[in-house]
Amino acid sequence: MAITDAEYENQRFVVLRRFRDMPDAFLFGSVLDSAGIECYLADENTIRMDWFWCDFLGRIKLCVRKADAEGASCLLNEGVPEKFDVEGVGEYLQPRCPVCQSLEVSFRGLNKAVDYTSALLGGPWRLHRSLWECNACRHRWPESTEKPPNNFLIAGSSILLFVMAIETVLGMLIAVIVTLGAAISR
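User: That's the sequence. What structure does it adopt?
Assistant: Structure tokens below.
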């Protein structure tokens, strides 16, 4: 059974979007997958192995069949829903920017690598706070409007920092004792 030129043309894959970063490409690909639209990420593996090839290859390409391109594009262009139902929890209202009322907000949590390294090297005691950031106006605000606890040992991050500080001091003490023991035994 032969297919016509029009059927063949509709079965061909076209590039719908290009992405510099893998998480964005995976996110948009998963949206299409969950809607039942066949798609794939071109050059994903090459760029995953060596990110410096990204611009040379024309970035990570989200490809869909030509017949599905219009529906996929509409789906990806939908805005953030104001609210939705969560099974077992109820209705969830999306957070809004307190300045511009945009729904295009994202959560910026603890940067563990930077904050823990800073704490181990004797950096500031206070860890990076969890913040919401508006993608429209770049306004940032804390996760909660409640004040942090007054008691130093109640806050989880403070306890972690306290334990890490004790561990660092004990490690340095052990190193000094071992060094002194080796010097005395000579």
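The two ends are 90 Å apart (CA to CA).
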